[in-house]
Amino acid sequence: MQTDLDTLKDAIKITDLARSLGLQIRGRQARCFNTGGHKNQDKHFSLGLNIDTNRFKCFACGVQGSVIDLYKEVKGVSVSEAINDLTKMAGLQGNIKPPVKQEKTGLGQPTSRIKTKQKQARTSPSQQAGSKPAPEGIYEVLQGYCGELDSQSLAYLTGATRGLTRETIARFQLFSIKDYQATNKFMQEKFSLEQLQQAGLVSEAGNLIFYQHKVIIPFIEGGRIIFLQGRRTDNQHPKYMHLKRSVPLFNAETLKILATGERVYICEGVFDAMILEQNGFKATAILGVNNFKPEMAELFSGLDIVLCLDNDEQGARATQDLAGVFLLQGQSVKRKLLPDGVKDITEWYIK
Asked: Domain range holding 334?
C-alpha cells in the first residue's frame, strides 16, 4: 500500500523525531546535525523545530525540511528508506498501536514481588543514559559523612505533603546535609576539585551545589549510588537541584525484576515513584522529558507502561512528548488520568 506523504509528514512530531534521533534539544531548538556546514563548527542550538508546520530549519547552515528530510539526513539513508522506516514508526501499516490510551480507573493490582518468568536482562540504565562514571565511591562518602536524616527533613518526608514511611525512606537511602559548611569542607579535603567537578558535585566556584537543598535522594544501580538529587524543605525555588551530569532514570533497578507484560509507572518526580512503590506498585521517575533519552525506552521493552506525570497543562504536553518517544521505538503506552484538582500521584494518595 502506498503511503500518503502528507499524512506521513504530519504523523510524527518533529520534536519527537529529533529527540529519538539523539539531537540535543532545548525548547523548540536543537543542535544541528550538519556541523560540517557551520562556520567555526557552530555549537549553538541553531536548528529550529517548528511545531506548527512540523518542519525544521537551521539558521546557521540553512538546511531544512520535513520529518522525512530530517530522518534521511541524520540517518544517512535514501528518501525511500526514510519513508519506509517512518511509515513503520508512525504505525501507518497497522503494526504499531496508538501512542496513548487513557486509564481512568484505579491503578490495577499491585505488582507481585515473586517473579515466575524473568525478562532477558536489560542494558544498564546508566549505560543507556550515557553517564560518564564518577570517581568510585564519591557519593557513598558524602552519604556516609551526612549520616541519617535530621529531624526537620524526616518530618518533611513523613508529613502531610509527602506521606512516606520510615521503611520507604530507608529503602531509598535518603539522607540530609545537616551542616553545609562542614560538609563542603570535608568533601574538598577528601577529593580534588577535578574529582568533585567530574562527579557534578560542585559549582564553577568549587562549592558543593546542595546549598539549600538539604534532602538528598540517591539514584542507585547495582548497589552503588550513580546520581544525586536534592530537595528544599521550604517553599523557595528552585525546589530541586541535581548533579551537573547526565541524568539517569530514578529507581531503574525495578525494571530488571519485571517480567514481560507486567505494569510499570513512569512518574515525573522521584517522590511520586516512591509512594507508588510504597503502595505495592512498580515505578520509575524521570527528571523532565528532555532528560529521557530515546535509548532509555528500550529498558521498558515488553512492559505495560503507564505514564503518570503531573496533572496540569505542562504535564499533559510532557505526556504527549514522552508517548511520542515510545511510539518511535514501536511501543505503546497508557496514561493515568487523575481527578481534577489533584496535582500528582502523591497528592492522590495523601488526600
From this structure: 100-128+249-350
